[in-house]
Fold this sequence. Notes:
Layout: E1 2-9, H1 16-30, E2 34-41, H2 47-58, E3 72-75, E4 88-92, H3 109-126, E5 131-134, H4 137-147, E6 152-153, E7 172-176, H5 185-192, E8 200-204, H6 210-219, E9 226-229, H7 234-243, E10 246-248, H8 258-265, E11 270-273, E12 289-292, H9 296-308, H10 310-327, H11 331-339
Parallel strand pairs: 1-2, 1-3, 3-4, 4-5, 5-6, 7-8, 7-10, 8-9, 10-11, 11-12
Helix pairs in contact: 1-11, 2-3, 5-9, 8-10
Amino acid sequence: MRLIVTANATPFLTGGATYHFDGLVAALRERGHDVETLRFPFTFHPEESILRLMDWCETLDLEAPNGQRVDKVISLQFPGYGVRHPRHVVWIMHQHRIVYDLYPDEPEEAVQRLHELIPPFDNRVLALAERLFANSRNVSARLSRFNGLAAEPLYHPPPLAGHFRQGEALNYVFMPSRMETLKRQGLVLEAARLWRAPVTCVLAGRGGLLETNKRFIAEHDLGERVVILEDCPDAEKLALYANCLGVLYPPRDEDYGYVTLEAQLAGKPVVTCDDSGGPLELIEDGATGFVVAPTAQAIADAVDRLWDDREGAREMGRLGLARYQERGISWDDVVDRLTE
Length: 340
């Protein structure tokens, strides 16, 4: 097939969306499809730029640009999923959450305007899709709740899926994630003050709260309990997963969450929270990890449980790996579903 895949481009910001897009394009090409990519320049501010991009995308007809026939368009992100094509498949990473589940109690005027205009846009353009998928049940549930639209969950493997290995558990827990409010590293730092186990927490990543987290560690004398790795090359990341006692991943209402999948591929239990969204689709409390309240004490207690029962932690990790394998998550399955 001759395909166009659309997504956003945000300068100097790399994360799960980038890996998702790159993984899909590579998988489609490996299966012999002729793929072109279309990346829309997206900025959160000023809000007016979002409205301009919405308008432009909705008028963009990709059926035969410059006379070149396109068999199908696959769109991943807002507002690029507004483009037009008779065979348009949308696989939603997430919507523009600030106007949905993250809409503030006292919004600024610009955000209020987005709140008025984006849901009708989503309702209009997504209803035209030939097929509608979401990257998790959590994202699908939001779409149903706010827009009354049904999207089929379609899972995909994390980056480096074929390179994870299982190693001996050492005396540290691991949390790789961008340092932002929704990822809740602050909750983990508070927990590190409370657990009694002789366990170090290794945080890997950068982000807007990096300096805030560094100050907290210094102010509370946590230098021997918490280590931050701003740069974590793939080889080091794989080693840290392989040899940790467990993985901490307590985000607030995550869309999908590669960390959960990566931990399971490394055979490690995951500590997550009962409001963490996507990870709850993959973690069974007491079987493949712990699902706890979003409090520092609850996370600290879970770390102590991993330490006190290391054989139990190993068994949870083994079961997590088995459950991942049973799900049959693969790019081949994704390509089959998106191109059928």
